[in-house]
Amino acid sequence: MSDAIVVRDLAVRYENFMALEGANLTARFGEALGIVGPNGSGKSTLLKTIAGLLQPSAGSVCVLDKEPRELPPGTIAYVPQIEAVDWSFPATVWDVVAMGRFPRLGLFRRFGAEDRKAVHHALAQLRMQDLSDRHISALSGGQQQRAFVARAIAQEPRVLLLDEPTTGVDEQTEESLRRVVRELVASGLPVLMATHDLERASDWFDRIVVIDRRVLAIGTPDEVLKSGAYAAIREHTHTHGHLRTDHESHAGHAAHPEITR
Amino acid sequence: MIEHLVAPFHYAFMQRAFLTAILVGVLCSTMGTYVILRRLAFIGDGIAHASFAGIVIAYLRGTNFYLGAGIVAVLTALGIGFVHRRGRISLDTTIGVLFTGAFALGIFLMSRQRSYSVDLQSFLFGDILSVSAQDVLMIVALALVVAVVTALLFRALLYTSFDPVVAQASGMNAGAIEYVLLVLIALTIIISLQAVGIILVAALLVTPAAAAYQLTNRFAPMMALSALFGALCAVGGLYLSYYLASASGATIVLLATVLFFAAVGGKQVRLAIARRT
Questions:
Q1: Which distant-in-sequence residues (6+ apart) come within 8 Å of A29 by Cβ?
Q2: Parallel/antiparallel/unpaired status of strands A159-163 and A18-27
Q3: Identical fold, A1-72+190-261 and A76-157
Q4: Where are the domains positioned within chain B?
Q5: CATH architecture for residues B2-267
């Protein structure tokens, strides 16, 4: 079976610095691929490029054998790390989740019974049914995150991209997210998820890729653990915390051996 | 009472004025929902001012008012969209420079004409009583175009207004949708110029929608309420101006302003009651 997502020699440059360089990785159908790395390592950049929000400066990204922007509407669901939405926007939880149906409806189709069913299903998956009529400004952080994941589920995408969905959420939210991700993976979806929670990686992911502007390692959580790249990153996040802004001084990580399966 | 309500309709120009007022009121306040939620108020004001150059050029050359103003307004809207998305100069600066420049060009050209003060005033503040039968046709046609396109793009406009990044990732073209919206706003402004004039059209784009925003927290009801407010203010303002012999555009806008403060007050009362129970 061909791979769902193929990233080849990808480089992404922002105005004055290289966020990603020479990145190669694949994601398969029916696997959860964790993207692990310190802050500023290019995790979000990678996800945004796969989502078609950023253009590669070199190399290529193929999603289901196409460039991201050429896929039919509704193919990719992306949940950003921080939803930069206006929380006073006139919308309830139901309204937000229903938006997930919009891409596939195009201009002419009506929002019908099937769409309502998909919204109900997505709300149920994230235990949000009781909050359906609540205005989005009246939600807790974890509830907001669940609403946006529910919108992604309602979209019935063929690829799901999650950017650190578990950062700063309560345990209940984290557990329902993990369950939802595993169910989607079991149904054959490729799920890519950025995280810096390394401890529970093996509960979440089939494989993980360690990045720090480059791909340092890719493999099962066990394999990556043995490679040393994982430990280097872990030590690195512990000693440098979240304040690291200097990318140049860590180029040495690229010397770590790469595992490819 | 009935007599007072019917009296203005004895005149054909008043019938046209009422039809125009309702169309303009509903259209401006419907599009105003997007203007408020996407924070485009300044852009709307800018487009209105820039279209003045087009009006004057059309006027001096004897060509159609709507054509001249329309071309300039749409081009300006597209230019603004481009700067908004790609530009490295801040949007405020661009609008400040270009729009006041275009406005000054209009006044410059106008001032070299002999009888300029009278005409200038009707462009700046509107003159709904001078709307001709031909103008009404043009207004109805343009209003239909705006209404149909807005209805088709309803979901796309809603999603990209709320969360453009995620909408884009899911395959919607947020950029193209924004350009279309700006053109729709430009057309709405053109339709409204004769009724309320360049200076006041921005108020009609913002005020009814802002009032509706106080009273509901869902999108579709906000839009419906805003349209209702727009229609009420337009018709009510026109009646008032008929009996008070006041300027129609200003009366309509003043009524909308009163409505806005009433809505703010209503919201405070509602919150106070909710807190007590």
A1: A1, A3, A4, A188, A189, A190
A2: unpaired
A3: yes
A4: 2-267
A5: Orthogonal Bundle (1.10)
Within 171-190 of B, beta carbons closer than 8 Å to A belong to 171-172
How many residues in chain A? Answer: 261
Can you tell me the ipTM of this complex? 0.88
CA distances from A39 to A23, A78, A221, A236 (A): 17, 19, 20, 10
What six digits make up the tokens of B245? 């012999």
* Alpha-carbon gap: A85 to the closest alpha carbon of chain B (Å): 6
**B37 vs A: CB within 8 A:** yes
Position B177: which residue type?
Answer: I
Contact at CB, A72 and B216, closer than 8 angstroms: no
Indicate the CATH number for domain A76-157. 3.40.50.300
How sure is the predictor about A260, in pLDDT bands with cuts at 50, 70 and 90?
very low
- Helical residues (DSSP H) of A77-163, grouped into ranges: 93-99, 102-105, 113-125, 141-154
Q: Do B169 and A78 touch (CB under 8 A)?
A: yes
CB contact under 8 A, A102 and B167: yes
CB proximity B167 to A under 8 Å: yes
Q: Is A168 helix (H, G, I), strand (E, B) or coil?
A: coil
Sign of the CA dihedral with A165 first, then A170, A173, and A178 last? positive
Nearest by CB to B213, from A90, A100, A148: name it.
A90
In angstroms, the Cα distances linking A2 to A5, A29, A64, B2, B222 are 9, 8, 9, 76, 48
Question: Which has the closest alpha carbon to A206: A227, A224, A229?
Answer: A224
- Quote helix, strand, coil % in chain B, to nearest 5: 90, 0, 10
Q: How far is CA B253 from CA A11, B226, B250, in A?
A: 54, 14, 5
Interfacial B residues in 213-272 facing A (CB < 8 Å):
213, 216-219, 221-222
Chain A contact residues (CB < 8 Å to B): 48, 51-53, 71-80, 83-86, 89-92, 95-96, 99-100, 102-103, 105, 107-108, 111, 135, 148, 151, 155, 157, 161
pLDDT in tens, A177-226: 999 999 999 999 999 999 877 778 888 999 999 999 999 999 998 888 88
For the record, the structure tokens of A175 come out as: 């557990």
Position B270 confidence tier, pLDDT thresholds 50, 70, 90: confident
Phi, psi at A243, each rounded to 5°: -95, 0
CA distance B249 to chain A (A): 29
Give me the residue spans of the domains in chain A. 1-72+190-261, 76-157
8 Å CB contact between A152 and A77? yes
Q: How large is the greatest C-alpha to C-alpha distance in chain A, in angstroms?
A: 55
For the domain bounded by A1-72+190-261, which CATH number is listed?
A: 3.40.50.300
